[in-house]
Amino acid sequence: MNTTRESIVKDMSLAPSGHLKIDWVKEHMPVLNRIREKFEQEKPFAGLKVSISLHLEAKTAYLAKVVQAGGAQVTITGSNPLSTQDDVCAALVEDGIQVFAKYNPDPAEYKSHFIKTLETRPDLIIDDGGDLVSILHSERQDLLEQVRGGAEETTTGILRLKALEKSGNLKFPMVAVNDAFCKYLFDNRYGTGQSVWDGINRTTNLVVAGKTVVVVGYGWCGKGVAMRAKGLGAKVVVTEIDAIKGVEAYMDGFEVMSMEEAAKVGDYFVTVTGNKDVIRGEHMAVMKDGAILSNAGHFDVEVNKVELAELSTSKRTVRKDIEEYQLKDGRKIYLLAEGRLVNLAAGDGHPAEIMDMTFALQAVSLAYVNEKYKELGNKVVNVPYELDEQVARFKLEALGIKIDHLTEEQREYLDSWTE
């Protein structure tokens, strides 16, 4: 491991490979390129420090460079120990961005990277899963004073932020990027749908067609996973705790049942709830021999690994990112990517064109909170619709698509209560 320019990365000699990856995604992120041009002219972050915690691969790296182009001094770390790409980290260091990250660090080192990222005393943060915010509000409150606010990427992170706000302890405004239309309609649905199956298929090299896929949770991510499983020829079962989403899944053509029932029929299981222990010991006890478990939620808590180990006599790695659990009754259950995000820990994450919109939202939201932080208050705030719509407009322009606009007469008609 090399420590270079006050950064901690695995190997600086990997930088050329990282540059190639970043150059590739840049070519496929036209909306973010448009934002970068704007930032280069206006320098909204001039003189400010920005700390970022996201899955540290090429698309995230390009976001960091866009924020840097806006005048910021950028420090970045990974938001998952298995999604960090060491060559990308090295490339960022060469580009003048401070990095504290490497692939698969031990838990103490992983935690230390968050701390070091915050010890730069940032003015603004971009968070994924609420890790930076959590540390700032618990063990490192001494670093809170300078933080103006930030933006949060994920469903899980927003849940944590809203709990913090509800308790009255949130100390600065955070923009809920995950709740923006251009995030959940495209990133959560189409991005997760494709990248989850990219990760599962490249890891297992097994057929999906004809098998039963159990999708645990039918939020926007679950909808995408179910849709893509159906496209691959699977029979899809959805489990839910929300009656409305259960009806929605049924109307979308999927079988809906409890996890107790679904556990008996599934070949593949994908958890996308943001909650813990949604697959537990009693479910594993009735699963088919050879069942494959995977998770697409932020933390590795959705599959209860402790109870899986308790049911087992042995565990071994049978293929990269596949752990085989030999159960006491002779069955085998396979867990992908240690129960961490399968699309990132065992794949490259969402397609670049999808993350183009999400990271454009992150960039403009960060500029928004920097401009408005004094009046936003210490709460979770939505991405303004104008910014959401602007990102969509840039995307359509990049695709060469034109849409209609209201005439003045139509505007007057919609604004009037008379005929």
TrEMBL record:
<feature type="binding site">
    <location>
        <position position="183"/>
    </location>
    <ligand>
        <name>substrate</name>
    </ligand>
</feature>
<comment type="similarity">
    <text>Belongs to the adenosylhomocysteinase family.</text>
</comment>
<dbReference type="Pfam" id="PF00670">
    <property type="entry name" value="AdoHcyase_NAD"/>
</dbReference>
<dbReference type="InterPro" id="IPR036291">
    <property type="entry name" value="NAD(P)-bd_dom_sf"/>
</dbReference>
<keyword id="KW-0378">Hydrolase</keyword>
<feature type="binding site">
    <location>
        <begin position="217"/>
        <end position="222"/>
    </location>
    <ligand>
        <name>NAD(+)</name>
    </ligand>
</feature>
<keyword id="KW-0520">NAD</keyword>
<feature type="binding site">
    <location>
        <position position="188"/>
    </location>
    <ligand>
        <name>NAD(+)</name>
    </ligand>
</feature>
<keyword id="KW-0554">One-carbon metabolism</keyword>
<dbReference type="InterPro" id="IPR020082">
    <property type="entry name" value="S-Ado-L-homoCys_hydrolase_CS"/>
</dbReference>
<feature type="binding site">
    <location>
        <position position="187"/>
    </location>
    <ligand>
        <name>substrate</name>
    </ligand>
</feature>
<feature type="binding site">
    <location>
        <position position="153"/>
    </location>
    <ligand>
        <name>substrate</name>
    </ligand>
</feature>
<dbReference type="InterPro" id="IPR015878">
    <property type="entry name" value="Ado_hCys_hydrolase_NAD-bd"/>
</dbReference>
<comment type="function">
    <text>May play a key role in the regulation of the intracellular concentration of adenosylhomocysteine.</text>
</comment>
<comment type="pathway">
    <text>Amino-acid biosynthesis; L-homocysteine biosynthesis; L-homocysteine from S-adenosyl-L-homocysteine: step 1/1.</text>
</comment>
<protein>
    <recommendedName>
        <fullName>Adenosylhomocysteinase</fullName>
        <ecNumber>3.13.2.1</ecNumber>
    </recommendedName>
</protein>
<feature type="binding site">
    <location>
        <position position="275"/>
    </location>
    <ligand>
        <name>NAD(+)</name>
    </ligand>
</feature>
<dbReference type="InterPro" id="IPR042172">
    <property type="entry name" value="Adenosylhomocyst_ase-like_sf"/>
</dbReference>
<dbReference type="GO" id="GO:0016787">
    <property type="term" value="F:hydrolase activity"/>
</dbReference>
<dbReference type="InterPro" id="IPR000043">
    <property type="entry name" value="Adenosylhomocysteinase-like"/>
</dbReference>
<feature type="binding site">
    <location>
        <begin position="296"/>
        <end position="298"/>
    </location>
    <ligand>
        <name>NAD(+)</name>
    </ligand>
</feature>
<feature type="binding site">
    <location>
        <position position="343"/>
    </location>
    <ligand>
        <name>NAD(+)</name>
    </ligand>
</feature>
<feature type="binding site">
    <location>
        <begin position="154"/>
        <end position="156"/>
    </location>
    <ligand>
        <name>NAD(+)</name>
    </ligand>
</feature>
<feature type="domain" description="S-adenosyl-L-homocysteine hydrolase NAD binding">
    <location>
        <begin position="188"/>
        <end position="349"/>
    </location>
</feature>
<feature type="binding site">
    <location>
        <position position="128"/>
    </location>
    <ligand>
        <name>substrate</name>
    </ligand>
</feature>
<keyword id="KW-0963">Cytoplasm</keyword>
<dbReference type="Pfam" id="PF05221">
    <property type="entry name" value="AdoHcyase"/>
</dbReference>
<feature type="binding site">
    <location>
        <position position="240"/>
    </location>
    <ligand>
        <name>NAD(+)</name>
    </ligand>
</feature>
